């Protein structure tokens, strides 16, 4: 926008090419037309090239039988499933490692970021060492490190490291008992939901009471007790309607129970630890962006240290933290595509790798894969922007 | 490796997007002569089939096909640019024109022949999928593999055929899938999987790369047909013919007893088959735009099929693969080349 004073000769209207706004509009229309024409051209040209080379196109392949196995799938999948289903399996695996990665990276990142500012010399130095180490090593190497240097050196299936008779760790992965729910178990999640609702009510009531009377209960602690204690009580009262399927060494390997494959562990560890080092720096800069006067003012009100951090510093720091944090979440999710380097069956490995190669539909498969990452990224951005708007400073 | 793969995929998707239609019908023979070298896609290191030797020269049965084509077209078997491709990259690289011949133990299947815009130019090795397991397991056959974790290279027909085999026999397995054969072997050695599966010829090649080759055995079952051979793009019949007949020339040379050693003196052979093959009677390269001595160049510089086989994968090589079904048709095998006439 121009800041020049808009002086116009009064009287007859100037021709449209002299009008700044109209000129801008015309240029924009031309630009859009050129881009559209370019897109139409390359789409047509691609189609023509593919036809000329006798390459079949279209999305019909998605309903064909895939015919290959996938080692980890959270939904039913067999080699008789369709290529469309391999897409979904890969997508879910990507979301799993991305989602769990975001959670772990946030927890580690916030802890390390706050520890970095600790008055305790040792803790601050350790946090610093963590950040400088993991931030400066490429994430692919870290994935290789966890996969090849750490998890590959675990013992074989027959010499597994056993923790009790229930947990086993070997080069094939981590084996956990799987809960099998009997009838009557439905009560426990129901209690859990009730407990959560009760806690929320308690927290709201506590806040109102605090505002009205100045008195407060340790609502957080009480909520924790309710959320975990109530379902536990019900569990015991109903006679524990759960049996555990234990992993057992049969044939080549452990069967039964839940298996967490080492490819997942390596990718998850590497992504979380790597991204956490960036998040830690973001958290540190966010906290340091809050003028020390805020802390002093809060302390002058004789608020305890913990509350100063929780009620005064962190809420303000969040406004600084959230925008760069969004980028880190996006990076983590996109970096999960490095899975293909160690054979974790994520979207890129299963769909843009195997499916592409078995069907040869390069353009369709790559387009779908890119679209998925674009949509995931946009959704994360949207959510974080919404969250940012919520915590943003309300100016009065 | 990873970045390269993505680059290849992107570059080829991009080139298909932007390349003009005219270049799609490019004349590969003309381009090759102008360039002075054949662009040949090979595997990323499979001893016996295509792997660089100690001096960095590519060697192997598949490499010899590249060399034969270069000898036929340019008269110099060394005029080859080798581009190593993994299983995922190979077809896109060929489709997009990065390579003109793919000679990379590739199985001839319907889908690949009919929907990818490719043509298979013959079979230089008849193979089948087998299983390699650790000797310690004491297994006798593939039917004892129920529940095993199996290391497979991604994007191969092996991935499909193993799934079929286990389903047909009502057995289960965990597919552990890697991009390169090197990673696959690594997974097998580290005990990530119980079984390494691939074409039996590849298993033989991979076995000698193990730290302890004696500790691994290849099970007797062969569970599929894997005819391996060179591949070209569709739409350039002249080039298709050149690759096809370069391979046929090597097989015919074995049948007629022409070798790299005796090719010179065979030029004066009375045998009409040999005379036609070596360009002494008529010019059978003319239809392909080649000189009359095209086959002579192949045989004198690369050798006939038997020589190539023995040198690279046969009993004279570390792989020690028997001729078996890869013997000539008149010696109990499948190898059969149409006559030069």
What is the topological layout?
The complex is a heterodimer of chains A (396) and B (341).
Chain A: H1 20-52, H2 83-116, H3 121-135, H4 139-150, E1 161-163, E2 167-170, E3 173-176, E4 178-181, H5 187-213, H6 219-237, E5 242-245, E6 248-250, E7 253-255, E8 258-260, H7 262-288, H8 292-300, H9 305-335, H10 347-359, H11 362-391
Chain B: H1 2-18, H2 21-24, H3 28-35, E1 38-43, E2 51-52, E3 58-59, H4 61-74, E4 80-85, H5 90-95, E5 101-107, H6 110-115, E6 118-120, E7 125-127, E8 129-134, E9 148-153, H7 157-168, E10 173-178, H8 181-189, E11 195-199, H9 200-207, E12 216-218, E13 226-233, H10 237-256, H11 263-266, H12 272-277, H13 294-301, H14 305-312
Parallel strand pairs in B: 1-4, 1-5, 9-10, 9-11
Antiparallel strand pairs in B: 2-3, 5-13, 6-13, 7-13, 8-11, 8-12
Q: In angstroms, what is the radius of gyration of chain A?
A: 28 Å
Based on helices, strands and strand pairing, what is the structural class of chain B?
alpha/beta
Task: Profile the largest sheet of chain A.
Answer: 4 strands, antiparallel
Provide the gyration radius of chain B in Å.
20 Å
Question: Biggest sheet of chain A: strands side by side, in what order?
Answer: 1-2-3-8
- Beta-strand level of the residues of chain A, as a percent range? 5-15%
The total count of helices of chain A amounts to 11
The percent range for helix content of chain B is 25-40%
Order of helices and strands of chain A: HHHHEEEEHHEEEEHHHHH
Return the domain count of chain A: 3
User: Which fold name corresponds to the CATH topology of the largest domain in chain A?
Assistant: MetI-like fold
Number of strands of chain B: 13
CATH homologous superfamily annotation of the largest domain in chain A? MetI-like
